[in-house]
Amino acid sequence: MDLKQNDEIIDVEKEPCQDIPDDVVCIYPELGYNRVTVRLCDYRTLEYDKYLNDAIVNFGIRHIYSNIEIQMGEKVHIFDTHFYDELSKNNVEHQNVARWTKSMDLFKKQLIVLPVCKASHWFLILVINPGLITLAEKSSDKQGSDALIVVLDSMGNGQDEAISVVLQYLEAEWNTNVNIDKSKAILPFDSSRMVLVTPECPGQPDLSSCGLYLLQYIGKVFEDVDKFSMLQSYKNIKSWTNDEEMKKKRSDIASQLKRISKEQGRYGHLVFPELDFFQRRNSTLTEENADIAYFNAYLKNAAESELNFSLCRQYSLQLFVSAERHLRLVYLLRQFQQKMQAECIRIALFEDHIKDEQYTKAEIMACLKQMEKDGFIIMDKNDMYLIKK
Questions:
Q1: Alpha-helical segments (H) within 264-346
Q2: pTM of this prediction?
Q3: How many CA atoms lie within 13 A of 21 on its CB side?
Q4: How far is Cα 120 from Cα 45, in angstroms, rounded to an integer?
Q5: Residue 55 in contact with residue 284, Cβ under 8 Å?
Q6: Deepest of 140, 249, 327, 346, by most Cβ within 10 A of its Cβ?
Q7: What is the number of other CB atoms lying within 10 angstroms of the CB of residue 265?
Q8: Is pLDDT above 60 for 312?
Q9: CB count, 10 Å around CB of 361?
Q10: Percent of the chain scored above 90 by pLDDT?
Q11: Alpha-carbon distance 121 to 295, whole Å?
Q12: Higher pLDDT pick, 310 / 24
C-alpha cells in the first residue's frame, strides 16, 4: 500500500477539540508515512451511539491493513478519509489531490479503497482493477477479474454523486499523471466501461454506527483481496456482520488503542474516560412500548432526503449527545399526544410531563423544529404543536 503525499510524514488533522484536553493516546503507525494521531477527544467518539470521527476511522483502517500480508498489501492503495473531501471541492478539481499520487501508478493496483463521509454519513467505495479497462475490449481480461466500482453503504443509498466524482477523478488521473505506465495500454481509460456494483449490505440499526460498518466492510475485503476483486464475490454479503460482533466493535477498537498506547509508553500519562460502549438502559426503545411504524416512517423520511438526514444527524450530535436520545424524544412527543387524545398540544404541558427525562428546553425545541422540517408536525405562534396524521 502506498502511503505517501509529497514525500513527507502526514498526520491526520481534525477540528479543534473544545473543552477536552488535547492528550495524545497514540500515533499509529508509530513510524512511517501517513501516521494517524489519536487523542482523547477522538477516543470519546467510541462511546455508544456516538458518530466515529475521522481519526478513529483512519486508525481503524490502518490497523486492519497492518494484519494482511505484505505481498497482498502491495496490491492495495488506501486513500485517507480526507481525500474525497479535497477531491469534491470546486466541482471535482483533480489538481486538489494530484499530489496524493504524484509518485505512483494507481492503475497497477488491484484494489483502491476510498472511505467517504458525505452528509455526515460514512460509506465505502472500492475501485477494483481499473487498469483492466486499458488492456482489452472486455473488462474480464485475466483469471476472471473485473474492472469494478463497488459501493458499500450501510444505509442502502446508491451514492450516484460520489460515484460520478470518483469516475471523473480516475479519468483525470489517467490523462494527467506522468507516472502512469501506458506502454501496455491497448485502449485509453474509459470510466464508463467499469462495472458498477451496489450490493445489498448488512444495514446499520441506528443513526450513528455507519463508521463501524465501514470498518467491518474493509476488514472483510482485506481477508482475501484476490477473491473480492471478482464480481461474483459481492452477490451475497449479508453474512459479513452479526449482531454480537458489531456490538463489541466499539469496545474492541478502544482496547486496541489502549494496548498501542501502552506499547508506546503513553498509557501511564493519560486518564482514559470511562465510556459506555453498549446500549444504555434509560434510552432503550423497545417494541413493547414504541410506535414502530412511526419510527420507521421517521427514519425512512430522513434517509431519503440528504438534507433531512444531515439535519437530523447534526441535531443528534450537537444537542442530544446521542441519536437515540433524539429519537426517544420524538417517541415521547408521539406518545404524549396519544395519551392526551388531542391533535394539538401545548409545549409547556409536554415539558412538564417529561421533566423526569431530563431534557432541556433547547433539546425539546430543536427536536420540534426538526420534526417540523421533516414534515411530521406543524408549530404555531402560541407555543403549540400539531402532529400531522
A1: 292-304, 306-318, 323-340
A2: 0.69
A3: 9
A4: 14
A5: no
A6: 327
A7: 9
A8: no
A9: 10
A10: 28
A11: 19
A12: 24
- The x, y and z cell numbers of residue 111, run together, are 484494489
Q: Which three cell numbers stand for residue 11?
A: 498526520
- H/E segment holding residue 172: helix 160-176
Alpha-carbon gap, residue 317 to 230, rounded angstroms: 38
Cell of 303: 434517509
**Residue at grid coordinates 479543534:** 16
Contact 191, 167 (CB under 8 A): yes
45 contact partners, CB below 8 Å, separation of at least 6: 51, 52, 53, 56
Mean pLDDT along residues 284-300: 43
Confirm if 162 and 192 have CB atoms less than 8 A apart: no
CA 208/CA 206 separation, integer angstroms: 6
Is residue 12 within 8 Å of residue 36, measured between CB atoms? yes
Q: Name the more confident of 209 and 7.
A: 209
Question: What's the Cα-to-Cα distance from 358 to each of 31, 351, 369, rounded to whole Å?
Answer: 47, 10, 19
The rounded distance, in Å, linking the Cα atoms of 198 and 194 is 13
Q: Distance between the two ends of the chain, CA-based, in angstroms?
A: 54
* Contact predicate 169/87, CB 8 Å: yes
d(CA 387, CA 336): 11
Q: Which amino acid is at 187?
A: L
The C-alpha cell at 98 is: 494530484
Residue type, 356: D
Cα dist from 315 to 226, 290, 310, 373, whole Å: 42, 21, 9, 12
**Cα 348 to Cα 33: distance, rounded to the nearest angstrom:** 56
Q: Which three cell numbers stand for residue 388?
A: 400531522
Q: Give the cell for residue 172.
A: 483525470
- CA–CA–CA angle 69, 70, 72 (5° rounding): 65
Q: What is the pLDDT of residues 336-358, one digit of tens each?
A: 777 776 667 778 888 888 887 77
Query: How would DSSP label each residue in 3-71?
Result: --BTTB--PPP----TTS---EEEEESSSSSS-EEEEHHHHGGGSTTPPP-HHHHHHHHHHHHTTS-HH
Q: Quick one: pLDDT at residue 382?
A: 60
